[in-house]
């Protein structure tokens, strides 16, 4: 907890040099943005808080030094000072990494203010061609609202026209394509800058590409923030409405009934449905099992046809065995049966077979 309390006092624990503050804050953002550790973990949130403190301190120093002016062009800014244009964008990106649910609305509104500050400065220097988002903060000054073409602090209405929606979609696709191209060029230039062999022109190109990339990132972040702010405000309104709404008394469940013409009909037809069951299927089965009323309790038995077939096969086997053993009685019985069949046709003596 001591780290949380001392993060704002960066000058006491961190180097007060402006370039060091920017580099350390930038490095913290890249580490937090690419880590696999949960964002809500204490260690990550401590680093986020520390990085925000460094970048805010650097922003205050830039304001005191008056490095940027509306009266100058982008070419007039020194190469060593170009990287300080990224301070508001990095502050906003690190602010979005905070995970406090209770303060989520305040967090996204603060991050949006940082992103808007960055985009306004880029618009003043004409770094990239883009349309500045409208001011949606209710506490915005009239000057800020007039700069964005609106005197009221209302969010931009959602387009109902299909042409406008298609144009917005195409703009997003184009912005995404440009961002990927800038990132590909940055990866090539970064190697030269990290090796320490980059000259002034390469370093200037590196920071220009970074600024243009962050313009696309900030525009996307502001769109997401506007949607999230609307959801959060609606949730707050629902919570307040639920808190003010009186608690409804719990009503007892109603008993089922059937409409009849008179009381006599109700007595004849009853409730209109069968009586409720008095036992479960398992209880009924257990009761019959105890009585011995269950035939086999689910044990399969052999069919009677199979039993008859087995008996006949055993009888034939006994006859063959006796014939093989030369049993006199069996032989005599077999000879008499053959003689009887020679003199009597099949079916003789069967009164049911009248043919």
Calculate Rg over CA atoms.
46 Å
Q: Total number of helical segments?
A: 14
**What is the oligomeric state here?**
single chain
Major sheet: none
- Which residues sit in consecutive blocks of at least 5 with pLDDT less than 50? 1-15, 138-155
Could you characterize the architecture of this molecule?
The structure is a single chain. By secondary structure, this protein is mainly alpha-helical. 63% of the residues lie in helices and 0% in strands. It has helices at 2-6, 10-13, 18-34, 42-65, 79-82, 87-95, 104-124, 142-147, 162-194, 200-244, 263-269, 281-291, 304-324, 328-343. Helix 3 (18-34) runs antiparallel to helix 4 (42-65) and helix 3 (18-34) runs parallel beside helix 6 (87-95).
